[in-house]
Write a structure and sequence with these properties.
The chain is α/β, with parallel strands linked by helices. The protein has a single domain, classed as DsrEFH-like (Hypothetical Protein Ychn, Chain: A, 3-Layer(aba) Sandwich). It is built from three helices and four strands. Strands 3-2-1-4 form a four-stranded parallel sheet, with helices on one face. Helix 1 packs parallel to helix 2. The termini are far apart.
Length: 100
Amino acid sequence: MERRVLFIIDSDPRLSHRPAEAVRIAAGIAVWKQVELSLYFRGASQLALTDEAETLVNGDHFTRYLPLLRESDARLLSSDHTTEDELAAWAAKQTTVTRF
């Protein structure tokens, strides 16, 4: 069975380093191509996906690692495009779920 990992990121990247660290860690995992990786950005954490990401706490992590995640076929989900029910169903299919 292939391992599937979901990172749920809901910390505010204007105030916390946690979203940037989650993206950095996910990129480190993705390069090995040993797991199917998904990141779900909820609430204010979605700012990491905008053009202003570099202005956030550790914003260079977003500009450096999000492109790597996209290239590695990691799935990037957001609460603007995914309902809570869809998230719950997706999380139930994962081997590991981690929250940042």
